[in-house]
Amino acid sequence: MPVLRVSMWSGRTKEQKSELAKALTDTMVKVAEVPPQAVTIMFEELPKENWATEGKLHTELHK
């Protein structure tokens, strides 16, 4: 039973998450050869100020 955890910035629409869930599930079915009902996807959305790269908050890097 594959469990995929997707961390991303807040702000994606329900439709975008649905499209992403479908694409990820389809890929797992094809590559890992598992049935779609075995694939679980969890979206974790965090604000940009909770992400940092090279010591800089993403609110500063991606204005």
Order of helices and strands: EHEEEH
| Secondary structure tally, helices | 2
Strand order, sheet with most strands: 1-2
Question: Which outline best applies?
Answer: elongated
The CATH top-level class label: Alpha Beta
Give the beta-strand count: 4
Biggest pleated sheet: 2 strands, parallel
Helix coverage percent = 25-40%
Number of domains: 1
**CATH T-level topology:** Macrophage Migration Inhibitory Factor
Using the 3D structure, state the CATH architecture.
2-Layer Sandwich
Uncertain stretches of 5 or more adjacent residues: none
Mean pLDDT, all residues: 96
State Rg.
15 Å
End-to-end separation:
38 Å
Strand content of the residues, in percent? 25-35%
Structural class by secondary-structure content = alpha+beta
CATH superfamily: Macrophage Migration Inhibitory Factor
Report on the structure:
- It is elongated and about 40 Å long.
- The chain has a single domain (3-61), classed as Macrophage Migration Inhibitory Factor, CATH 3.30.429.
- The mean pLDDT is 96.
- Strand 3 and strand 4 (56-57) form a beta hairpin.
- The protein has two helices and four strands, in the order βαβββα.
- The protein has helices spanning 14-32, 58-61, and strands spanning 3-9, 40-46, 52-53, 56-57.
- The N and C termini lie far apart (38 Å).
- The chain has 63 residues and is an alpha+beta fold.
- Helices cover 37% and strands 29% of the residues.
- The strands form two sheets. It has a two-stranded parallel ribbon with strand order 1-2. It has a two-stranded antiparallel sheet with strand order 3-4.
- The relative contact order is 0.26.
